Amino acid sequence: MIKKPIALSFFSGAMGLDLGLEEAGFHVALASEIDKKCLETIKLNRPNLPLIEDILDYTPDEILAAAGLTRQDEVTLMAGGPPCQAFSTAGKRKGFEDKRGNVFLKYIDTILDIRPKYAVIENVRGLLSAPLKHRPHTLRTSDAPLTEEEQPGGALLHIIHRLEAAGYGVSFNLYNSANFGTPQVRERVVIICSRDGHKVPYLRPTHAPNGEYGLPKWKTFRDAVAGLKEDDMQAAKFPEARLRFYRMLTEGQYWKHLPEELQKEAMGKSFYSGGGKTGFLRRLAWDKPAPTLVTNPAMPATDLAHPVENRPLSIQEYARVQQFPDDWKFYGKVVDIYRQIGNAVPVGLGRAIGNAIINHMSGNIVNMSDFKFSRYVNTDDTSWRKSLKPAKQAVGAQGNLF
């Protein structure tokens, strides 16, 4: 029997990343999760998996012991996505000053103590621009420019310097999960760290938007939900006031496709707000990947309506888009299940991460640095570093800023 490489999972959620790592050939020896509903989901599907709760409550030795390991055992991989709200551009962006940001630092500390061969950190795009310390926009003036610590990128730079100082090679990129067989446009930062000091190549895409590089085209929502029966759907409901407008929209349309005289009525005060507002009254298109799944598809600004049915996407469709197996069980009410699935890492992206590490271990190196991994610029580790001001690089090198 071939012994599989060991992975320890943190911030495990509903285990989307873990399922992908298992498909790539890893043995997940431990999960860690604080959310009560997610804990029950893990127990339902992996009743024999060692499970701990808040990482803040455990020392590295206690974590190893919970996994049935000692300091003499080789941990191949530690993987997880620390809570992202502290770095999200939609929030207050307190970063490491936020309690959730401190959990991020605890995760880094644990990596540096256990010293796995590889470590993975998955997070939102906002991590690329999060400052080391955040100054609210209301307090910014031309007379008091941002300090070095308040400049964009400082938080990630601090993490990188800590890992590199411990001998890890660090590479990262902003990846669109659709390029890895997921029927969803979902962009996440994935940082891969290698204890040997070398950089792991970027993830190897399996799909491309229009079949570039000889790869298959992106998977679509139609592909994802094939075979599901409408009678089996469990879904939230839209209020009648919104359904009135949905009945006027066809697949792939949103509020701007309503008759002009009804757009203001449909949007209310939101009609006058800024931004593209593409999430309002939005029906999915059959033959495109789904938009990024949110934690509730029935919220006014982030609607995710079925292409033709007058309802939000069902939890069965949600699970298919995130590539969970049909027999995967989720604990809780419909609203709890939406949140668990919406927060998950797509299984296909998890598999691509696992494959990148397995390939690096075996020397099967393929570089596709010319592939367009996302729609943004300066989101890979090389171009991102070049985009930083020299002053910020000096701040990161100083290290002890907390």
Describe the protein's architecture and organization.
β2, α2 (36-45) and β3 form a beta-alpha-beta unit. The chain contains 13 helices and 7 strands. It has helices at residues 16-24, 36-45, 60-66, 99-114, 154-165, 221-225, 240-246, 260-267, 315-321, 334-343, 347-362, 381-387, 390-398; strands at residues 6-10, 27-32, 51-52, 77-80, 118-123, 169-176, 187-194. Helices cover 31% and strands 10% of the residues. Mean pLDDT is 90; it is low at 391-402. α5 packs across α13. The chain has a 7-stranded mixed beta sheet with strand order 3-2-1-4-5-7-6. It is an alpha/beta fold and 402 residues long. The protein has 2 domains: 6-217 and 346-398, Vaccinia Virus protein VP39 (Rossmann fold); 221-343, DNA Methylase, Chain A, domain 2, CATH 3.90.120.
Using the 3D structure, state the CATH architecture of the largest domain. 3-Layer(aba) Sandwich
- Backbone structural class: alpha/beta
- CATH homologous superfamily classification of the largest domain: Vaccinia Virus protein VP39
**What number is the mean pLDDT?**
90
Report the C-alpha radius of gyration, rounded. Answer: 22 Å
